[in-house]
Structures are given as structure tokens and as C-alpha cells.
Amino acid sequence: MAANEDQAHIAVIGCGYVGLTTAASLANLGHSVIGVESSLERLESLQEGKVPFFEPELEELVNLGIEENHLAFTFDLKSAVSQAQFVFVCVPTPSQDDGSADLSVVRSVSEEMSDSLISGSIVILKSTVPIGTSVQVEEWIDRSDVEVASNPEFLQAGRAVAAFKNPDRIIIGANTLATREKVAELYSKVSAPVVCTDSRSAELIKYASNAYLASRITFVNNIAELCEKTGGEASTVLRGLGLDKRIGEAFLQPGPGWGGSCFPKDTRALISVAAEAGSDATLLNAVLESNETRFAQIAAVISESFIGHEEIQVAMLGLTFKAGTDDLRESPSLKVASLLLNSGVKIVGYDPHVTTTPLNGLEIVQSVEEAVKDSDALVVMTEWERFVDLDSEELIKLMAGKIIVDTRNILNSKTYVDAGFSVWQAGQGWKKPLK
Ligand code: UGA
User: How far apart are CA 320 and CA 387, in angstroms?
Assistant: First the structure.
């Protein structure tokens, strides 16, 4: 048993950005945590205190946990759970071809750990899973002395540690009051509203949150496109919209469409859940389609600025799906790059956190200067800080053309227009130098 009354013994299965953030953060709250990682390469790196992907603040937290003897890592799932009062499941639930979530890893870990779980322990699903999965996991575990709860994560890549420390809410779904209270107790040092409910509702809160945010950004991009075409100022329109307290100002940034490992997968999965339930998914289907249309709009903005030209070279700045992460999954940059490559445009990409090419035909270089050299146009796809102040004189010297497409609306367009560039920005459209 724990020396400290408040200290729980926890196993966290899966050490991706959700699992590792959860493990290191729970250790930081004073719990004794063992992270289970199935990839030996990742495991070795974690045991040396090295985080095998980029997530701000996480490496420091992992090292602190190891130093304070609150955090360790293992390959051995059975032995880890055999000493744990709480087992967090943080394994991937990727999309299948039909859009539904693939639960095969959740199932295999549930079955594998079943015999080793201690009596009275609680298995907590943090992975994003379809409604009813907790009940399904109870069947896979098949132990009447073990409870299963849902405690969905709301960690944003790039600020996952901060989101864990300071969440908007903690959602706990379980069948019994006692289990809800025990899980809530793990977070007693975190100040946030706790919503306790049944496991199905908890699972749906996670899907509904991501699908709502994805829908909201699609709506924002629809308004931005209107402004791009009709001459409105989207930033002002969206500020005017967000000041309505019922709407709120967060998550109203127009961009090249949303991506990442969560919004696309979870929106598709919710559509699949709705289809299975015979429930209406018209809105969500339209949101998915409209997001794809946004990628095509951005590719068209770039290619239409070169009608009649041949052998076009574009510098693409930013390849990850947003700043603050090295994650390329379903990145808008790659969607747009793929459309441009298919129409014969040469693309030279640069991203501070990407070193190997993620796409056939996409050349990767190691600096902004190399990327823009001899390019006909520069496209900002990810809102990395270092792209905000590109030196216009340098660009003129290095680039062959004078076109800038800023899909994140982060540049001060006046600087570049004054230097002779034609600048297109999300939600603003084109601004061109006076002839
Ligand atoms: C998202 C949710 O925000 C988290 O709450 C959730 O826990 C996580 O998914 C998950 O399910 O694990 P994440 O995918 O890391 O987090 O990224 P976001 O910051 O939500 O951005 C998603 C996409 O929307 C990105 O492509 C981003 O560039 C885009 N976005 C976001 C905009 O285009 N405009 C905005 O105003 C905000």
C-alpha cells in the first residue's frame, strides 16, 4: 500500500502523447505511476527520460517523476496492472475504412490484463471510444470484482501538460457512485468542475466536444471564405461574433481546414455511431465534406495565381497540423501539398519539427531560406512563431516570384505588400501592391 494516504498506485497503458502526459501528470500530483509501453524503442527512450516526440513541458515532467521515484516505465503489462489500484487505458483507437473506431488494441489489452488485475481495481478508459465501449470492456475483462470507468481526455497537442494541470472540466463516467468518487479523488489536487455521470454519457461528451469544435471551425472557415470572396474583414466579423457571450471568442481562427489525430477521426467515428443508432448525421457529414473543400480552396488559391505559368515551385512553411507539435497526422499541409503535387507543382517544405518527407514528391529542407530559394510563391500553412516575422528584403533576394499565401493569417500583410508582394490571407483574400 502507499505510504501516503492520498497516493494511488496507477498503471497507464500506452505512452503516446495522451498516455505519457497522463502518466507524468498523475505522478506530479503525487501518485505512484507505471507507464506501459509496447514499443521497445520507445520504452528505452522513456526509461532514459527522453520523450520520443515533441510535446512542450513533457520531458521535464517525465524526468521529475523519474527522479522523485513516482514514475517508471515497463514493457510488462501484466506485472504493471498486478500492482495497480487504477489502470488507465490510453491506447490508439484509429479510424477504420468505414470511419468507425478500431477498438482492437483496447480489446487486446483488456483481454491480456484480465487475469492480472487486482480485485477491486478500476480500469479507466481515457482513449476516445464509441458510446458503449466501457460496457464492452467490462465484457472483455470479464471480472465481476473489477469496475470499468470512462474518463475522457481533453488534452490539446502542444499544450497537453498545461491542459492536464488546468482543465476546463473533468468528466467521469461510471456505474456506481463509489467508483466515480474514487476516480474523482485521483484529481483532488486539480481545480476544475467535475462532472460525474454514466459511462455512455461520458464517452459521448468527448465525441460531442471534438465534433462541435470541428464544426465550429468549419463554420468559421465558411465565413472566412465569404470574406475572401466578397471583401469583408473576417477577423472583425469573427470578433464581432465571438463577443456574443453565448458564442465566445475561443476557437474562431480561420485557417486551411482542421486536421490532426483527433478531429477527423472522432468526427468520422461519431458519424458511424449515429448511423448505427439510426440517428441524423447530416450536419457532421456536411462538416467533413466542407473541411475537404477548404483544402481544395487553398490549393486553388495557390494554383490560380499561376494560371498560364509552367514549372511552378512553391515553398511550404509548416507541415504539422498545427504549431506546437511534430504530429503530421491528417495535416492540412499534406492535404494541400498532395493536391498541388497532383497538378504538377513542385513543393519544397520546411517545418521546424519535421526532418523526413512525409509525402512522395514533397522535398523537405532544413531552413526557411532553403525552402523559399527560387520559389514562385511562399505558403504559410502552420502558425509557427518563427514564420510571423519573415524578412521581406531577404524574401525578395531569395524568391523567384512575389506571391505569399498566408493560410493562418499570421503575417502583417502591409509589410509584404509595401515590399511588392501580392499577399492572400485566410479571411481577407488578396492584397496587392499599387501598380
Ligand atoms: C483536440 C481538442 O481540442 C482537444 O480538446 C482533444 O482532447 C484532442 O483533440 C483529442 O481528442 O485528443 P488537438 O487535435 O490537439 O486537440 O488540436 P486543436 O488545438 O483542437 O486543433 C485541431 C485543429 O483545428 C488543428 O488543425 C487546428 O489548426 C485547427 N484550428 C483550431 C483552427 O483552424 N482554428 C482554431 O481556431 C482552432
Answer: 14
Domain ranges in the chain are 9-197
Burial of 250 (0-12, 13-18, 19+ CB in 10 A): exposed
Active-site residue flag, 90: no
209, 217, 266, 383: which to mutate for ligand 1, most atoms within 8 A of CB? 217
- Closest ligand 1 atom to 209 CA: 5
User: Does the model's pTM come out above 0.85?
Assistant: yes
- The secondary structure of residue 188, as a DSSP letter, is T
Mean pLDDT taken over the chain: 95
Decide which of 3.10.20.90, 3.40.50.300, 1.20.58.460, 3.40.50.720 is the CATH code for 9-197. Answer: 3.40.50.720
Q: For residues 155-169, b (16+ Cβ closer than 10 Å) or e, as one string?
A: bbbbebbebbbebee
The cell for 9 is 498506485
Q: Which atom of ligand 1 is nearest to the CA of 159?
A: 15
Q: What is the pLDDT of residue 6?
A: 79
d(CA 28, CA 44): 21
Residues, the chain, total? 435
**Helix (H, G, I), strand (E, B), or coil: what is residue 86?**
strand
Does residue 106's CB lie within 6 angstroms of at least one atom of ligand 1? no
